[in-house]
Design brief:
The protein is an alpha/beta fold and 181 residues long. The chain has four helices and eight strands, in the order βαββαβαβββαβ. It is 30% helix and 24% strand. The radius of gyration is 15 Å and the shape is globular. It comes from Lacipirellula parvula.
């Protein structure tokens, strides 16, 4: 057990799953890996924090305030007593007490999984590194969706790969779950 290490599960919420308002590519596979990671942290007694995004406006395209879509998915449902932080921005640290809670726990290293690879995983990982945390991102426990840039369709796999390669270049150690200790 490494008490200086904590798990951040970011935005694994109903709207990203089949039938949700903003379904992600391969969310089921990523969620299964995230659930396995969550079980490992629970079994070891290491700190873990669930992050959930909720937009302020009821007119938001997804994660509307108080909606079922904004709830954390059942596959990684928090247990009673587990910390859940609600954010309104891409960066999990922005205008939340995440950093204060981690520092109070003595956390120096973060393991990050969740969604979306190119948004909140990027934002949270970069902010964590900038705040001095050592970061590991479990890439197969993260998901995203296709995007468009300059009139060109970018597949979800390419969005994910570009996101993970950028994080691995300077912000985090990027690993598959099977390679994570």
């Amino acid at each position: 057990m490494n008490p200086a290490q904590a798990l951040l599960l970011i935005d694994l919420q109903n709207d990203y799953y089949p039938g949700g308002a903003y379904e992600l590519d391969r969310i089921g596979e990523a969620s299964a890996k995230a659930a396995e990671l969550l079980d490992r942290f629970r079994s070891s007694g290491q700190p873990l924090i669930h992050i959930r995004h909720e937009f302020a406006s009821p007119d938001a395209p997804f994660f509307r305030p108080g909606s079922d879509g904004a709830a954390i998915h059942e596959s990684v449902q928090p247990l009673p007593g587990e910390t859940v932080i609600t954010k309104q921005y891409v960066n999990s640290f922005r205008e939340t007490d995440l950093d204060a809670q981690l520092r109070a726990l003595g956390v120096k290293q973060l393991v990050i999984a969740g969604a979306m690879s190119h948004m909140c995983i990027q934002g949270g990982t970069r902010a964590a590194a900038d705040l001095g945390y050592q970061v590991e991102v479990i890439h197969d426990a993260c998901a995203t969706r296709e995007q468009e840039f300059d009139g060109r369709r970018v597949t979800a796999a390419d969005v994910h790969a570009a996101s993970m390669s950028a994080l691995g270049f300077a912000y985090a150690k990027v690993l598959a779950l099977k390679d994570w200790k």
